[in-house]
Design goal:
Elements lengths: L14 H12 L1 H4 L14 E2 L191 E3 L11 E8 L6 E6 L14 E9 L18 E4 L5 E6 L11 E2 L1 E2 L3 E2 L6 E4 L27 E5 L1 H4 L7 H4 L24 E3 L14 H12 L2 E6 L6 E7 L2 E2 H9 L11 H11 L2 E3 L25
Parallel strand pairs: 3-6, 3-15, 4-8, 12-14
Antiparallel strand pairs: 1-9, 2-17, 4-5, 6-7, 7-9, 7-10, 12-15, 13-14, 13-17, 15-16
Length: about 550
């Protein structure tokens, strides 16, 4: 538990690029068998009053294999952007204190990273990006390419036939292809979206994606390229086996982060409510003082149904378009009604490092590392940023009865007392977990496309431990908010729920394979983010406004 009692987490090809490509093709006969291309793609805060309850939590109560929670589940009307407006009746809150549960990316849609030569595979006609490149989050073009509905590649942005580069795809000798070169719909490089052994970057090393002309929207892909949420794992990373225990509570869970990036919305006062994670108290009634005034769409509602007590870590963009307020646990029980919350955190800027925020267990961001609406779709390519993961501390985090030094590690700013945990000192809140570079992710036996894509992201970017699930489940942070629910989007796109009770399903088995293979990057520090050395992938591109 932390210091506040807890709930359980229930490209466009430019002229220069074309010239490079032409040179590559001209030299193809000379380097045909030697060139390749890697695949791409607190709660320290101030409380305004009241005491904290004893916490609710994730529960398997009312959860079905389809991911729909039982009694008391609230429905989302309108679904998620780009998902066809699908709704999910009762897919949110259920009984037993579940925060909506979620999961992970799958395979396919691998981007060409550029600036690196792999270890094999000759160039294949069409293996580089056409006009458009991969669409970014929520259908917004990244490299100036037009996006289709829900983030589909722009015209000519598909690779080869079906988007599958041969033998890991190939660049010329060290030649750079446009970062974010689009694959076909759901196209993939090799099995599981990896080239070569586990998608390891070749000898050319990674380059700054901005050199290809690709840009990003900070509201959808926030924070500096060197932020902990964007920095790839480095070639000097030191891996320590995490020794994560197999979860027994359910197949997969999520922690829903509330993300509101509508600076044009009416300024709304957030009132105080001190119910926190006491599953006998209502989070709806508000009282003085007002803890913040922030832009929130009048129609947006987020109403936990007791005994559900989700984390509800929230990030809200202010009217100036760059300052982010964070609070926890946010609720809004009626449209146009007064939202309520309790704890506040230091402001961050969309272009800054974005490290800290409203994930109370670790003090880390509610915005960075979250799987966003528009990501992890069949046509959206790999997720190119760090994730946020959670497990049960009593099974997986370092045993620490007292003393902050053993409860957490950088970049976390807080931790939780843990009297029954593990002897692996590298496993604490704030730990960066990743699939080791030596692991060939194509041999993991993954059965589902989202899990294969998640494997790529976990090997190339990793995921930070940000909270404790408080029972035997794995969790990953996903978006909910005015722009939709990631849970609904995932269900529609992949045909099964991200959050499931049964472990004996393809998705449940895949989650075991991924989490049990994770290692801690033990030399992840403020001066060697991701472990240092050459990044496995290009750095995030510059913001469109820069």
């Amino acid at each position: 538990m932390d210091q506040h009692p807890r709930r359980r987490v229930c490209g466009t090809i430019r002229g220069s690029d074309f010239a490079i490509l032409s040179l590559v093709m001209a030299l193809g006969s000379l380097v045909a068998s030697s060139v390749g291309c890697s695949s791409d793609s607190s709660r320290t805060g101030s409380a305004t009053g009241g005491s904290v309850g004893t916490g609710g939590g994730l529960s398997s109560g009312g959860v079905t294999d389809s991911g729909v929670l039982g009694t008391g589940g609230s429905s989302v009307t309108g679904g998620s952007p780009g998902s066809g407006g699908a709704t999910s009746a009762g897919s949110d809150a259920g009984i037993g204190g579940d925060a909506p549960l979620g999961g992970a990316p799958g395979s396919g849609g691998v981007r060409v990273t550029g600036g690196s030569s792999g270890t094999g595979g000759a160039t294949t006609t069409g293996a580089d990006a056409g006009t458009g490149g991969d669409a970014s989050i929520a259908g917004a073009p990244e490299s100036g390419g037009a996006s289709g509905s829900g983030g589909k590649p722009g015209a000519g942005g598909a690779t080869g036939s079906g988007g599958s580069p041969s033998a890991g795809g190939a660049t010329g000798a060290g030649g750079a292809l446009a970062t974010g070169g689009a694959t076909g719909s759901g196209g993939k490089s090799g099995t599981g979206g990896a080239t070569g052994a586990g998608g390891v970057t070749g000898t050319g090393g990674a380059i700054d994606a901005g050199s290809t002309g690709e840009t990003r929207d900070p509201r959808l892909w926030p924070f500096a390229a060197t932020s902990i949420w964007n920095m790839p794992i480095g070639s000097a990373a030191v891996y320590v086996p995490a020794q994560i225990k197999q979860a027994t509570g359910m197949g997969m869970s999520v922690d829903e982060d509330i993300i509101i990036v509508h600076p044009e919305s009416p300024l709304t006062d957030v009132q105080t409510n001190t119910a926190d994670w006491d599953n006998t108290k209502d989070r709806c009634p508000g009282s003085s003082p007002t803890i913040m005034s922030v832009p929130i769409p009048a129609s947006w509602v987020f109403k936990p149904i007791l005994p559900d007590t989700p984390n509800a870590a929230a990030a809200i963009l202010l009217a100036n378009g760059h300052t982010v307020k964070q609070t926890q646990p946010l609720s809004r029980c009626t449209a146009s009604g007064a939202p309520t919350s309790h704890y506040t955190f230091a402001d961050v800027d969309l272009s800054g490092d974005g490290i800290t925020g409203a994930h109370g267990g670790s003090g880390l961001s509610a915005l960075g590392g979250t799987l966003r609406i528009g990501e992890l779709r069949p046509s959206s390519g790999n997720v190119r940023h760090v994730l946020k993961v959670e497990m049960w501390k009593a099974e997986n985090y370092f045993t620490c009865a007292s003393g902050a030094a053993c409860q957490y590690r950088w970049p976390a700013t807080s931790g939780e007392t843990n009297t029954a945990g593990t002897s692996v000192s590298a496993m604490r809140e704030g730990s960066l977990l990743a699939l080791p570079a030596t692991l060939d992710i194509t041999t993991m036996g993954l059965e589902t496309e989202p899990a294969k894509r998640l494997a790529w992201t976990l090997q190339n970017y990793g995921g930070y431990v940000v909270d404790d699930t408080a029972w035997s489940v794995y969790a990953i942070a996903v978006e909910t908010g005015p722009d939709g629910k990631f849970l609904d989007q995932f269900q529609q796109d992949w045909g099964f729920a991200i959050k499931i009770s049964s472990k004996n399903t393809p998705w449940g088995r895949d989650m075991d394979r991924l989490f049990l293979a994770l290692a801690a990057v033990d030399n992840n520090t403020a001066t060697s983010v991701g472990g240092g050395g050459t990044p496995r992938q290009p750095l995030a591109p510059p913001f469109a406004s820069q």
